[in-house]
Amino acid sequence: MARVGVVGIGHGVFGRRSDASVQELAFEAFRLALADAALEPAAIEATVIAAVPEYHKQRSIAGVVQEYLNLNPKPAWLTEVACASGSAAIRTAWMAIASGLHEVVAVIGCQKMTELDTPEILALMGRVGDVQWESTFGTTFPGYYALFARRHMHEFGTTAEQLALVAVKNHHYGALNEKALFRKEITLEKALASDPVASPMRVYDCCANADGAACLVFAAERRARAISRHPVWLDGVGCATASMSVLRRPDLTGLPSAVEASRQAHAMAGSTPRQVKVAEVHDCFTIAEIMAYEDLGFCAKGEGGAFIADRQAYIGGATPVNVDGGLKAKGHPIGATGVSMACEIVNQLRGEGSKRQVPDADLGLTHNVGGIGQYCFVNVYRRD
Amino acid sequence: MFEWFGRVSFCSHTKVTDFACHLRAGRLVASRCVACGHLAYPPRADCPACLSEDFTYHEISGRGTVHTYTRIDAAPAGFETLSPYVIGVVDLAETGRLLAWFGPSIPESEIAVGMPVQVVPRLFEEIEEIRVYYSLERPEAPGAGAV
């Protein structure tokens, strides 16, 4: 099978972007990606937009973005699987190219989350779970991850300090990322003293909503080699689902969809978890990153807490994770996040990570979760 | 009648609407597939095992053990005045799981993973219209087990 390569990346500044509309955010990322690929807009044969519609006042956002990019009448469509929408867009771009339908496809993740006022956000927050049997008791998104955290602590002795150490690491790297929402280091003490949200998790265990966009340009192998001097290959794509409800999830110490998606991606790429030199994982909450270490095979089950405490997820450790700051420090514009992760992996595999560069990075992985693992996409990228 | 279920209802139409009527009458019910006998909690009209749409309600004991829990400090719309509240996920004795608040018989300091609890059907007495729910109580607490 012919390979599919990334030939251009563009990443906007994440944060409270009261200076821009969602299509303007998309344009920023698109412009950067085209410049990176040295391509004219006419080279783009189709656009896959990733965004979660309920955060936008504007309905049918793909049409609005496609028009603003001046790409009519080229095809465009939207992918949506909650916080994993960006990786769903990447997967469909891979399909579109691998099928032979298109040769050059742009993927744009964009989200403006600060358009909604606080009551609207609180109403949305109350409907993240199974609304028939769970939301009736006031469940929240951090509350669900807190249920995992409590169980993980019970079974494996994971501690609140270990959770907070994930935030300390991600803020450390976020401080070095000019595109990140939070560019400040934090201390363990500060994290542990922050306000409670859903026990055992506190404010610093949670990522923040943000506005932002990111763009990737994918091309079929022959075109990719012609366009780019350093294409990065999407060699393994994995995707799996798990139950919506925690009531139908036998094990609440990990995400079965992540384990399965990882297995698929490595099987396709012919790689193993130990070969991953740099990973971007979905740290919407600190416990999510600890579970990801285990689900992705970076450490054994139950040892995720020790993995961060021993600094194995730092550059120089066994598997550097989220060296761009992760969702925690970058901010989490939900439609853009999966695309942002891939941008960072491409950046690392090109060796252009500057102060955040992982030495000898030749194989990278992204792990993008929708909800509490209802959807999970794991992708493996390689350089030549 | 399913809009009876919960303080804030997001699901007024379902094929298992009689669940709320049973709860109002003090009974916690699962669904049982008439075709293959599959027992499910929460109840469901359509059998995931054999695809049959023929089901009956089956009363269950409400006994269970706490699988995990969290105290919600940052509450969503409709629950602001209740926070903080503690939510538990319970492995039911007969089948399945249930999510509910801990009731007054179990102070937060005594909540632990693995502790036995009794699910008790309840009515929101401070709300004028009919609103039913259930809470997690100490098995020997007054009212518990009286369903």
Quick summary:
Chain A is α/β, with parallel strands linked by helices. Helices cover 36% and strands 18% of the residues of chain A. Chain A has a single domain (4-116, 211-383), classed as Thiolase/Chalcone synthase (Peroxisomal Thiolase, Chain A, domain 1, 3-Layer(aba) Sandwich), CATH 3.40.47.10.
Question: Can you describe what's shown?
Answer:
The complex is a heterodimer of chains A (384) and B (147). In chain A, helix 3 packs across helix 13. Chain A contains 13 helices and 11 strands. Chain A has one domain: Thiolase/Chalcone synthase (Peroxisomal Thiolase, Chain A, domain 1), CATH 3.40.47.10. With 147 residues, chain B is mainly beta. In chain B, the strands form 2 sheets. Chain B has a 5-stranded mixed beta barrel with strand order 4-5-6-8-7. Chain B has a 3-stranded antiparallel beta sheet with strand order 2-1-3. Chain B is 5% helix and 34% strand. Chain B has 2 domains: 58 residues, no CATH class; 75 residues. Classes of the chains: A alpha/beta (384), B mainly beta (147). Chains A and B meet through helix 4, helix 5 and strand 5 of A and strand 4, strand 5 and strand 6 of B.
Structure characteristics:
heterodimer; A: 384 residues; alpha/beta; Peroxisomal Thiolase, Chain A, domain 1; nine-stranded mixed sheet; two-stranded antiparallel ribbon; 13 helices; globular; B: 147 residues; mainly beta; 2 domains; five-stranded mixed barrel; three-stranded antiparallel sheet; 8 strands
